[in-house]
């Protein structure tokens, strides 16, 4: 009897430790649920120029295999290209709706994962988000299109959930055409020197994830 009591007492710390580990694991899983939820990307730009108004408070959209920033609600008008009097009109693009997803054969560990986004509503289809290794443009495509480029790791800051890439925030936008701002990542942290013509406007931005609105019938994770 005494031996049994002593054994139980000796086992208590282990039991308590195991229970606490399970609780911590459950809390961690709850905190990480947001990673699998579709989120839009909201843009913050603190550049002092008036040009910042073109993008500050805007969103990221996908169009023509690239990512762009716009303050125009892509769902307010025609989100895709459309025909008007036999003329093809360019739409604003598909609103980014992405989430973290394990990239095949990656070795990033806790540094992050791959990143995917829907590219159309019907039928639903996902593409990988990646950074072009030559131009540093942020693009989207199938795995065969992403291979050979910089595909991750993608992550986000723990509190504000600002998007990070390879462990930091090097997001910039380039005005490729008047009022058309393409998303880049400043891989070398040198202001995209040699990647973008000198006459193009470049501004630094931050990207924050915001979960898409839950629709009736969506699963509760």
UniProtKB/TrEMBL annotation:
UniProt signal peptide: 1-21
Keywords linked to the UniProt accession: Signal
Domain of life assignment: Eukaryota
Name recorded for this polypeptide: Uncharacterized protein
